[in-house]
């Protein structure tokens, strides 16, 4: 928790509630953790017990904390996001989560910046193709394509909050585990919806099911695809290609990687380009037009 800012014009109890709320949302105070006593909080923030009581009531009304028989105030198992007073639609939290997931469209895959690519793919673009690769690999490996695709779509959603840390940064930066981030991201949802997203993140990170193993391979195959595409543009993406291939687990993914590395990333459209004039003439003839 952060001490309150004496220059902040808000009422002390509002500032204290904001400090405790931030500690909960950031994971400093985890679900089921007991808050310090009223006397301890009063001493820490330099206010009266009555002011602490007002701050706790605010957090209790928002659903962040609860008082339990026998004394003590605890962080709720699944805190609610702050909402305006009055009636709130039960799916407001889901809407907030989907808006947040949309931020992945604005978040670049930071590793490509090391190659000097000024406008690299976004995390959302990466995740889209990971889902497609996951469906294909699942079909080849006998896994559930739908479940695999869902894991693929969720695998980087936590980066909306912590960012995409490149390999250089990982040697220095420690971030919250994805499961904890997802728990906070889904905090405003109905429990049954939050559980769906939280379980997918946990399954992907634990890598015990066949679907999760395939989803991890799909992540690496997509990186391999993007690396080969950047290579055709003159970027030295060989380290990304090598590490992606080395990390593959399933035989289907290894076979697909071999196919990707022995083919031309531009091949899917080169035949159209080579036959452009003939294709144009055929199309115009079909439409009854002159070549």
Secondary-structure blueprint:
Elements: H1 12-25, H2 38-45, H3 49-62, E1 65-67, E2 73-75, H4 92-102, H5 123-141, H6 145-154, H7 159-162, H8 167-170, H9 178-185, H10 191-206, H11 210-232, H12 238-246, H13 251-261, H14 267-274, H15 276-286
Antiparallel strand pairs: 1-2
Helix pairs in contact: 1-3, 2-3, 5-6, 5-11, 6-10, 6-11, 9-10, 10-11, 11-12, 11-13
**What is the overall silhouette?**
elongated
What is the percent of helical residues? 55-70%
What pattern of helices and strands is seen along the backbone? Answer: HHHEEHHHHHHHHHHHH
In DSSP terms, counting alpha (H) and pi (I) runs of 4 or more, how many helices? 15
Question: Based on DSSP secondary structure assignment, what is the total number of beta strands?
Answer: 2
Percentage of residues in DSSP E strands: under 5%
The biggest beta sheet, please?
2 strands, antiparallel
Query: Could you name the ranges where pLDDT drops below 50 across 5 or more consecutive residues?
Result: none
The radius of gyration computed from the alpha-carbon positions, rounded to a whole number of angstroms, is 25 Å
Distance between the termini: 74 Å
Mean pLDDT equals: 91
Task: Find the structural class using helix and strand composition.
Answer: mainly alpha
Give the strand line-up of the largest sheet.
1-2
